[in-house]
Amino acid sequence: MTDFVHLHVHSEYSLLDGACRVKELAAAAKALGQKACAVTDHGNLFAAVEFYNACKEIGIKPIIGCEVYVAENSRFNKDPHERTFHLILLCKNKTGYHNLAKLASLAYTEGFYRRPRIDFELLSKYSEGLICLSACLAGEVSRALSAGDFNSAKEVALRYRRIFGEDYFIEIMSHDFPEQMAVFNQLIRLSRETGIPLCATNDVHYIRREDSYAQKILMCINTGKTLDDNERLELPTDDFYLRSGDEMAELFRSCPQAIENAVKIADMCNVVFEFGVTKLPKITFSGVNDNVKFLRDMTFKGLQKRYGTPRKEHIDRAEYELSVITQMGYVDYFLIVWDFVHYAKTHDIPVGCGRGSGAGSLVLLYRHHRHRPASLSAYLRALSESRACFNARLRYRFLYAETSASYRLRHQSLRFRPCGADNNFRNVGREAGFARLRACDGSAL
Cα(150)–Cα(158) distance, rounded to whole angstroms? Predict the structure, then answer.
């Protein structure tokens, strides 16, 4: 059995394109005797944690990556005629994962135009800890070779080599269709002339060959086409599946080093996710050297403002809550909540009274002057929660969280929900050409 690792794989999180269920993907790689497997979804890291856990559960190494989109010039250009190229990035270590997460985020927040895009500026800045593959036919190197411009392909490859050094590889595939086979030997020549090593991959979009039909349906749903549409977008062959090591070795018998390099790259990738550890952002204020003292001082100033001369029960409770907050390491977290609300109140942005265990504490009551006190008991042994509602029409003014030099802590949450049975029947039936499907009871779906 030939040792091989797949480094170009699209899971179900390559939305309406990849047909590999995450757990099934990990299990299939294990069944093929492969010691590791990568996930490289289009423009996102949505599968990272689920894939990591699935691989760890069955004893193979997860390799976290992404097939990013690189703008031809600048990520800020919104020119419909500007091309976008594919590129594979794989994480070697924790630094690489942080950099890839940064690139994926900036691709959406700064470079999104039809798809999330990065550029050479970002690649140069966040290349540490990443391994780069030149990608498929949609990569810049292969695009130049397809156009018959070997010199341009060479310049592009050397440019990436200057950024990633020895962690840059020329990716080579063999899917047996004319456009790809036309550049196959040119990629080998490019590797030979530049000294950049080859890496063999299979552009995996589904797990088994017989799954190619299901992937075609996904692509039809994605593009709004039907299976009988001759102009629909589809993969050119049915071999975009998770091949065995022996199959890959046979395809690349003319360049066995490309197979060996895939395994070497897998050995270089060692990202470890740490679970069960609370990681909170830090905040700094001008003129404040001790955040614990700052929180304490503000709490007792608020206590005096609200009650004049506070009773012993108020003081004892404030002392208890401050001790719990400090011991649990939540001082900066509470200060961040205060910072948001204080900014909103001083900039005429209506803000609600707040909810959650942290928001119900006496400490936040004194600093927000909003909350009704509630017991801050052992609930804080888990991460406390503070939620505040801001006026929806004025949220556009709330750029403070994004631009404050004190901290960078914002993130957006999203939830994936698979299509229900009704939607699946309706979508598949439409793409397969059925005019109308009906449920068992005769009702239209």
Answer: 12
What b/e string do you get for 261-289 counting C-beta neighbours within 10 Å, with b at 16 or more?
bbbebbeebebeeeeeeeeeeebeeeeee
Residue 422: predicted pLDDT: 57
Residue 369 has what pLDDT? 42
Written as six digits, the tokens of 431 are 């793409």
Residue 247 sits at φ, ψ, to 5 deg, of -60, -45
What confidence tier does 408 reach under pLDDT thresholds 50, 70, 90?
low
Count CA atoms within 13 Å of residue 328 on its CB side. Answer: 20
Higher pLDDT residue, 143 or 223? 143
pLDDT band at 29 (very low <50, low <70, confident <90, very high): very high
* 69 or 410, greater pLDDT: 69
If you search the block for the tokens 């999104």, which residue do you land on?
A: 112
Shortest CA distance to 170 belongs to which of 144, 209, 205?
144
Per-residue H/E/C for the chain: CCCCCECCECECCCCCCCCECHHHHHHHHHHCCCCEEEEEEECCCCCHHHHHHHHHHHCCEEEEEEEEEEECCCCCCCCCCCCEEEEEEEECCHHHHHHHHHHHHHHHHCCCECECEECHHHHHHCCCCEEEECCCCCEHHHHHHHCCCHHHHHHHHHHHHHHHHHHEEEEECCCCCHHHHHHHHHHHHHHHHHCCCEEECCCECCCCHHHHHHHHHHHHHHHCCCCCCCCCCCCCCCCCCCCCHHHHHHHCCCCHHHHHHHHHHHHHCCCCCCCCCCCCCCCCCCCCCCHHHHHHHHHHHHHHHHHCCCCHHHHHHHHHHHHHHHHCCCHHHHHHHHHHHHHHHCCCCCECCCECCCCCCHHHHHHHCCCCCCCCCHHHHCCCCCECCECHHHHHHCCHHHHCCCCCCCCCCCCCCCCCHHHHHHHHHHHHCCCCCECCCCCEC
| Nearest-5° Cα angle at 239, 38 to 54 | 30
**Per-residue model confidence (pLDDT) at position 76:** 96
Q: What is the mean pLDDT of the chain?
A: 85
Q: Which residue has the higher pLDDT, 52 or 375?
A: 52
Amino acid at 239: D
**What pTM does this model have?**
0.81
Is the model's pLDDT at 301 over the cut of 80?
yes
> First and final CA of the chain: distance in angstroms?
48
Q: Which of the residue ranges 88-97, 125-134, 392-401 would you say has the lowest mean pLDDT? A: 392-401
Confidence class for position 399, pLDDT limits 50, 70, 90: low
